[in-house]
Amino acid sequence: MGYDIERFVGYVNEGLLCSICRDVLEDPLQAPCEHAFCAACIHGWLVHHSNCPEDRQVIDVSLLRPLYRYMKNDLNRLQLHCRNREYGCEMVCSLESIDRHERECEYSQIPCSNAGCTVQIERRNLDGHLAVCEFRSRECPNGCGYTLLSAEDAQHNCVAELRTELELLRSEMICRVEEAKHEMESRLDSQRRHMVQKESILQNEIEELKSQMSRMMSDVRSLMAAERQHRQELEQAELEKREL
């Protein structure tokens, strides 16, 4: 839908009106036949039709193009009233800047920011409303530190709230202690498995060293026996030599 023509100051060229809603073009698109439409209007039209609503020429979404630059410039220069005119805003500005103004307009109706409050208030009066809003939050005046809504004041009990908070803290502490305990047990189990594994490796190495030592002792005994045999053979040879 376009901008209500009643909001505009002065004459508005016929070529700047949507051919469907007959209001001033909003997000304009142009067909090959040069008829212009609001983007929302023409897209809604083409859901059920396949031609231009003005001259019935066949058109398709893919044939739609942005408005000619000179027409776009003429459109942006149009002057119109703020949509909050009925609430007291007297601002008149160009179509090009109207959206920016209305986003910041002091007369805009905005919702209260307090949870649970359904009041719609003018932006300029928001601070005053927040100061008295029955859903505003504040800290308990008795010093318990609990955040209150004015509507809850009658039901608030500092002792009960602090007891609840204490129970929550106790539960959280127990959970953390249990988590730390499980983590330490997991670490100890991991270290224990590592120590057992290292002990097994060392035991295997010791057994291997013992086996090597046994083989070496056997080799030494064999060498000593061979040496005795060799000495005896030399002595025998020496005797035979002397006898000769």
Automatic annotation (TrEMBL):
Domain RING-type: residue ranges: 18-56
Q: Where are the zinc fingers (TRAF-type)?
A: 101-144
Q: Domain named TRAF-type: which ranges?
A: 101-144
InterPro entries this protein is in?
Znf_RING, Znf_RING/FYVE/PHD, Znf_RING_CS, Znf_TRAF
Coiled coil, from the record: 192-243
- Please state the span of the N-terminal signal peptide per the UniProt entry: none
Q: Which GO terms describe its biological process?
A: regulation of canonical NF-kappaB signal transduction
Alphabetized, the UniProt keywords read:
Coiled coil, Ligase, Metal-binding, Zinc, Zinc-finger
Annotated Gene Ontology MF terms?
ligase activity; zinc ion binding
**What PANTHER family has UniProt attached to this entry?**
RECEPTOR-ASSOCIATED FACTOR, PUTATIVE-RELATED (PTHR10131:SF157), TNF RECEPTOR ASSOCIATED FACTOR (PTHR10131)
Protein name, as recorded: RNF41 ligase
Protein species of origin? Prunella fulvescens
The record lists the lineage as: Eukaryota, Metazoa, Chordata, Craniata, Vertebrata
Q: What would be the name of the gene that encodes this protein?
A: Rnf41
